[in-house]
Amino acid sequence: MSRETEWIVFEKAIEVTASAVRGTMGAAGSQPASYVGEVFREIHRALREASAEMPDRIGTTGFAAQG
Questions:
Q1: How many CB atoms within 10 Å of residue 8?
Q2: The pTM is what?
Q3: pLDDT tens, 18-43?
Q4: Is 13 exposed, middle or buried (0-12, 13-18, 19+ CB in 10 A)?
Q5: C-alpha dihedral sign at 53, 57, 63, 67
C-alpha cells in the first residue's frame, strides 16, 4: 500500500471511529477511554484489509475505446 493510500485509510478510520463512538463516551456508566482505541484498531485493520483487496488503479477510468 502506498504511503498516500495508507494516510487516506488512516484518516477514514479516524472519521469512522469518531462516528462510531459518538454518544458512548462521557456519560455516567459509559465505555472506558480504552474502548475508543479498540474500536479504532478494528476499523483501521478492516479498512486496510479491504483496500489491500481492491485492484490497483491501472489505466484510465471511463469506457474502453472500441475499435
A1: 14
A2: 0.72
A3: 999 988 877 778 888 899 999 999 99
A4: buried
A5: negative
Q: 26: Cβ–Cβ under 8 A, 6 or more apart, which residues?
A: none
> H/E element holding 13?
helix 3-21
C-alpha 45, offset from chain centre: 8
Nearest to 42 by CA among 23, 60, 16, 8: 16
For residue 61, give the C-alpha cell: 477510468
**Torsion on CA atoms 49, 51, 35, 27, rounded to nearest 10:** -150
Q: What does each C-alpha distance from 58 to 1, 5, 65 come to in angstroms? A: 14, 15, 16
Q: In Å, what is the CA distance from 43 to each residue of 3, 8, 15, 28? A: 18, 13, 10, 25
